[in-house]
Amino acid sequence: MRRDTKFNISKGIDTQLVIIYLVLVIIGWFAIYSSSYNPEIHSTNIFDLSKNYGKQLIWIASAFVLAIVVLSFESRHYMHFAYHIYIFFLLIMLIVVFVGTEISGAKAWIKIGNYSIQPTEFAKFATALALAKFFNEGKTQSQKRYMWLTAFGMIFIPIIIIIFQKDAGSALVFLSFIILFYREGLSGNIFLIAVTAFILFLLTFMLNELYAIAISTSIFLIFWIINRKKKKKLIRNAIIYGCALLFIFSIDIIYDKTLQPHQKMRIDTILGKTSDPQGADFNLNQSKIAIGSGGLWGKGYLNGTQTKLNFVPEQSTDFIFCSIGEEFGFLGSLVILSLFTALIYRILFLSEQHRNPFVRYYGYGVASIIFFHFIINIGMTIGLVPIIGIPLPFLSYGGSSLWGFTILLFIFIRLNNS
Amino acid sequence: MENLIKKRYYVILFIIFGLVAICLIRLFHIQILDPSYKKHAEQNALRHLTEHPERGLIYDRNDSLLVYNEVAYDLMIVPNELRTFDTNDLCRILDIDKEILLKRIEKAKAYSMLIPTIFEQQMSKEDYGYVEEKLYKFPGFFVQNRTLRSYPHPVAAHIFGYVGEVSQKILDNDPYYQLGDYIGISGIEKAYEPELRGVKGKRVVLVDVHNRERGSYNDGELDQAPVAGTDLWSSIDLRLQIYAERLLNERSGSIVAIEPATGEILCIVSSPSYDPNLLVGKARGKNYRLLQEDKKKNPLFNRALSAMYPPGSTFKLANALIALQEGIITPSTSYFCPHGYIVGNLTVKCYHTGTVDLTSAIQVSCNNYFCRIFYNTLSNRTKFPSIQEAYNTWKKHINDFGFGQKFESDLPYETRGIIPSSDYFDKIYHKSWNGNTVISMGIGQGEVATTPIQMANFMAIIANRGYYIKPHVIRAIGKKNNPNHRYTEKHYCSIEAKHYAAVIKGMEQVMVAGTARRSKIEGIRMAGKTGTAQNPHGMDHAVFAGFAPIDNPKIAIFVLVENAGGGGAVAAPIASSIIEYYLKDETKKEELENKLNDSLKK
Ligand SMILES: [Zn+2]
């Protein structure tokens, strides 16, 4: 193994990934500046620390330092300490469950002075490392039997802790490792069941259970006709169909019974399920209006009205994409989607190329996490998926998320270079 | 196995590109294909506000303010922005019951959740002070300024008219007005609505999700400042108006004075009157009802314009002019009066006896003389083949003087008065009627009825020797020296100018040696005619009509005091006081005002 020094850490690293990363971070800062920009009392001081864009400058600068630090460690250290890091962040998250600070409903934060840190963001790369190490270890025959059980266990431990933090959105993110599992040999059926369950969940939420039932029933009938000669398959199909219906009803019951009325109201209004007594189409998803009003070219930088006038909630964090969609239009959206797709494709491509399977395992984990964040975040701003409060990687305001994703990506860049 | 796993790389890529493609299609749809989001965005963030201009002010002919605007404060409510608040506190401030408060909130909600509606109209200044201070405690409420008409002097109530909220009918027909706008409903306010209202401005502002204004849109590119309404200068002389109202001193009656050369009304009194400030704002409905219920005084009745009275002896002047024009008489035509007009068993009494020519007949108001010339006018079969044709000729002249019709100028509530048609007499007398059947019209009694404004205008015609300009109350628009071009046309009457001299001479004699000799004014040559308007319901009304000075007339006047008996004793002194006051200089004015004050104290 080649020994790297601090002076040549840049040597051999993947410049494409670094460039895409830098472009996304810079676009993110400009979008945050725009959404915090007040047409009336506009301060020209971009270092104004009372503003999100001022603070984000600090986060970006420190993220760059963090990236260099990450690159300066040797790859074998990441492999060696993968479990230690994993357990360390699990413990931190567990502590947060008891002593954490609550911010917008989630008790997932540690407060240090004026700043809050969300350990969940770091658990993502920690889990990815741990899973990579786990898959990389040689296994005995008996270990192989329980391999998938252990792998699922490794993602469900953080999920359960996060659920205790009342941060459902982040918990869902860990399910994205299933893409990695699928790549590494998880039964296609299980993958299919997981994906189907997820789609049924969205359908039930987005439209209503009748659509979900109708779709599952028609799929079932098609399979029934195809397999009508094979009794064994018919029985299996019937069981799957029954499970799907049960799943749909249970979502509905969970939704009706467990959500507090005000939460339900929020979700219903966001989803456009309730007609608003105000009449003026206020039920329409405001973020959709912001993005939709951008047109082809957008309204121009700093000229967005919807994001600037607070029609869009959480506009510099979870809904940062609205600002871009409104001010840069479809072309702006196209650029963002292209950048993310290129990033993810590049990670997967490099992973497949690499001789060391550890890098592939980790790479798939990174791609899964980033892809899930990206597609769910943009999907929710344009009304394709329900509002799941997760940030857009590298663009959304916030130190923890930027740091977390920076570490996540740069460990891969470092490993890829080994 | 390894091959199968390798294939999964492509499955995963396919899923990733597929989902990205779905997002792109969706973005393409909402950003480019579907225009509704742009519309929603505009509705969201832009608010089109109307800026109401200040209504034009009204001054008198000497620049004294007659009508101005006072700020009133309406408490507005936006139900959508309501949060829980201390209802008891608000009830206490506004002095209303909680029930009423809740009812009003419900009503506002029913109208609109987002559009502001009036919660409490025209708060007093004290209430406004309290509310303003505590407004932060009542989210969803805000205070809106609105202007109300106000009158510094409680006079001339009947001509201003009033301003009120625009009706649905006007909203349907005139796109200028919006719900809740104010509009002139009657009087000057209605007649000059296009001038007084000004031009509404607009403001396009950015509004954030909490309905808070966040500055103007595009640096105010679309904004238009409101243009204040045009100020008006009334022909009314405020001091004269006050003086005239005090002269009547709550007695029922009317005074109208006109500047003959211009048709400008100098003062117009309908008594009893009321304070125009009573009919402003939220108290209007209540006060209007109270005034309406006052049947004894009937203060809302506009006697100067709407009341019909028999003109009495003043009408004789019109008949004299017609007889002169039609060649029935010459100024020297004389008749003997045997204490009345006696034909067969018809007798119209006269207090006088002897032979009189036209001038003397006017001076002594000889009933015989005027009955005779009226009869002769209607019975001249050499000129007119039938009574109908004779009567219609007479009626044409009378209508030409402005009797029996409305002027349709800027005055409210005009009535026509009554000058019957020949058809009317044909009907009631079955076509068999002659001059004697309708003889009482010859002396201004019987079937004729006129309004004070018509009589004052008739005096202006005599003063002008043959023409009038429609009587009106607004003399200048926008600037004091910018004349009101609506009323400048001279209406020449059918009587030639040469016929007036003899009549005026008789009217001067009235003042010098006739029925109004006690009311003549030192140093001013004045023409006048007293009269008694018969009143079947009680004591007769005292009437005086006249103008002064005889050469170069400055003021024509008509005075009527209800149930006051003869015109010479009551109406003539009031008229000459007004004329003297109007024509004399400042020091004399004060002297007259003091004199009037003293006499009123007694
Ligand atoms: Zn006589």
What report would you give on this structure?
The complex is a heterodimer of chains A (418) and B (602). Helices cover 67% and strands 3% of the residues of chain A. Chain A is globular and about 75 Å long. Chain A has helices at residues 15-36, 52-72, 75-99, 120-136, 141-145, 147-164, 168-173, 178-183, 188-206, 209-226, 231-258, 261-270, 286-292, 320-353, 357-381, 399-416; strands at residues 101-103, 106-112, 115-117. Chain A has a three-stranded antiparallel β-sheet, with helices on one face. In chain A, helix 1 packs antiparallel against helix 2, helix 4 runs antiparallel to helix 15 and helix 13 (286-292) crosses helix 14 (320-353). Chain A is mainly alpha-helical and 418 residues long. The termini of chain A are close together. Chain A has 16 helices and three strands. In chain B, a hairpin with a 2-residue loop joins strand 13 (335-343) and strand 14. In chain B, the strands form six sheets. In chain B, strands 2, 3, 4, 5, 10 and 16 form a six-stranded mixed β-sheet that branches. Chain B is built from 21 helices and 20 strands. Chain B has 602 residues and is of the alpha+beta class. Chain B has two domains: 47-232, Alpha-Beta Complex (Penicillin-binding protein 2a (Domain 2)); 238-289 and 300-601, 3-Layer(aba) Sandwich (Beta-lactamase). Chains A and B meet through helix 8, helix 13, helix 14 and helix 15 of A and helix 1 and helix 2 of B. The complex binds zinc ion. Zinc ion binds at residues 337, 350, 352, 366-368 of chain B.
Structure at a glance:
With 418 residues, chain A is mainly alpha-helical. Chain A has helices at residues 15-36, 52-72, 75-99, 120-136, 141-145, 147-164, 168-173, 178-183, 188-206, 209-226, 231-258, 261-270, 286-292, 320-353, 357-381, 399-416; strands at 101-103, 106-112, 115-117.
